[in-house]
Amino acid sequence: MITIETEIASPVDQVWAMWSEPQHIERWNFAGDDWHCPKSVVDLRTGGRFVSTMAARDGSFAFDFGGVYERVVSNSEIAVLLDDGRKWITTFEATDGGTKVIESFEPENENPEEMQRAGWQMILDRFKGYVEASVK
After folding, report:
1. CA proximity to 5, closest of 86, 115, 105
2. Which residues pair with 106 in a beta bridge?
3. Are 36 and 57 in contact (CB under 8 A)?
4. CATH assignment, 2-134
5. Distance CA 66, CA 50 (A)
6. Which of 18, 71, 83, 121 could form a disulfide with 79 if both were Cys (CB 3.0 to 4.6 A apart)?
7. Cα 63 from Cα 2, distance rounded (Å)
């Protein structure tokens, strides 16, 4: 498992909403400025599905990233079985300064683990920036 984390200066309920609602996901769910997330569909319940379309802004490449929610504990944890069979768990912990978000995921076999860690961390950092800019 690869684990990344960040602390966000916002309460858990706001962080949870911005993590799990499509209109927010589409605004932060990409690693670099040359990518975007033009579509996100979420059925946030145990057994529900999600899919986010990740696309290059120049239109040269796009793919869907999706899976099934294996466990959803409101404002606390989301466990996912990705469409490629890997596990991904995200936890949300209240802290004195806001919310700690911790993601653990099984790496895929196509790219080096450090590259995957860096890419996922970039997305998580973008999420942090989006939440903190939205709640000020």
Report:
1. 105
2. none
3. yes
4. 3.30.530.20
5. 5
6. 71
7. 22
Greatest CA separation found in the chain? 44
| Mean pLDDT of the region 111-131 | 95
Which structure tokens are listed for 75?
């404002």
Q: Rounded to whole angstroms, what are the CA distances from 63 to 52, 68, 132?
A: 8, 17, 28
Q: pLDDT for 22-40, tens place per residue?
A: 999 999 999 889 999 999 9
Tokens 């309460």 map to which residue?
11
Across 1-136, where does the E strand assignment appear? 2-8, 35-42, 49-56, 62-73, 77-82, 87-95, 98-105
Residue 136 confidence class, pLDDT cut points 50, 70, 90: low
* Residues 103, 5 contacting (CB under 8 angstroms): yes
**Domain extents for the chain?**
2-134
